[in-house]
Sequence to fold (265 residues):
Amino acid sequence: MTSESEQPTNPDLLRIVALGGLGEIGMNMMAVEAEGKILLIDCGLMFPEAHMLGIDLVLPDISSLGERSADICALVLTHGHEDHIGALPYLYQQLGSPPIFASRFTLGLLKKKLAEFDLNLNKQFHQLEARTAVSVGPFTVEPFRVAHSVPDGFGLAIRTPAGLIIHSGDFKLDTTPLDGERTDLARLGQFGDEGVLLLMADSTNVESCGYSGSERQVGPRFVELMKQSQGMVFVATFSSNIHRIQQAVDAARASGRKIILHGRP
Ligand SMILES: [Zn+2]
Fold:
């Protein structure tokens, strides 16, 4: 980030700084700067690795934002995973308490998280809807639907004075997701026709060849395994993977099992 005296005024100049999340899993946070204003995307944490003894959580390093908090016009959250929203309660005030834009489900998760910190930011919440653009500073942000392992995820089409940039968020090309909310390839195609200055796409296991199966294939396999198994069956998943939990519950019922949910409330 530039110091105040060096703020770029050239409309063709766009500055993008990854504050975390590049080449690592976790701490996703990106700053996009145009005309002296900064748009932040995500504010995630990283869970400590084995060598980080005594460390509970790892937060993005926002020191490069320096004294620029007054220039931050919005924080947009792509989806509700901890590695995209988990650092928010710790860093929000240092960021100058900007308005927060996210989907309904993401805001719901955030609200619950903030209650643990005794923080009520409801007045700062702005709900995003797919294909409905909002303007913040020199940016216009249009969320588009992406399928992912947490409901209500968005990718972002960001119109800047320099051109259109696409931030994919976390996405899966699942043609039969359980909630029917597929990644909006049609809209992405339209952005392509319009002309994209920069595509930022993230993919875990991008080095592996091949395709992942649809989430819809998981349920029948659960039923098969639970019917074959003697005694208790344990299923582990992220607590925000609502579709996976529903499929596990449905399979348990189909195989005549009692269900106990255990985890962080
Ligand atoms: Zn995610």
Remarks:
- The mean pLDDT is 92.
- DSSP finds six helices and eleven strands in the chain.
- The domain at 4-200 is CATH 3.60.15.10 (Metallo-beta-lactamase; Chain A).
- The CA atoms of residues 44 and 84 lie 4 Å apart.
